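Extended Data, record SHSP domain-containing protein
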Amino acid sequence: MSSKTTLPSGSTFDSSLDMTRSPAFQRAVLRAAQYKCLQALKAGKIRLVQEPNPNIPTRFTPRMDLVDDTSANKLTAIFELPGVKTSDISLQIREGNLIVTGERRAPQTIQSALASQKTLPRNPVTAADDVAAGDESESTSSHVAIQELRFGSFYRSLPVPAGIKESDVTAALQDGMLTVTWPKIPGRLQNTMAVNNIAPNTSAIAAQ
């Protein structure tokens, strides 16, 4: 036989419960939580992740290596651009900088999956709120379970020596790697441009 214990009115338990319901106490807890999150962000323990929206264009910066060839008096930049066609890349010399721009398009499989869902990958907090509010829709037949690849427009800028023109620059795209070469001194690079290299006085790579 179980017994039931009744706490007297005005007990410590009741006082603590009343305190947690106080707006002042809740504001203090919120400030403490915000401070903890800020400290964790500064320490690199957590990071802010913006929930992606397939309807909003994104832009990313391609990774690259820069090689300084002192024997040939030239510089070579190698950009990581898998899945990008030559027709989707543009090279320009502008205000003393080499500008590399273009677009990497998502494969049709990913485009179809993104189009059939609201927003993925979903924020777990948002998803929990939807469930609590009874606004959880049925799962679609296709969705992106993990989304790590970057698609959309890209941009990268590198300073070049004064006097360098687009006709001094050679470029080639092979196996998803864009190789761009220019001389340290204008007019000193004598390489012959190949079929898929940048053409003189143009801003785009010729199609392969």
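Summary. DSSP finds four helices and eight strands in the chain.
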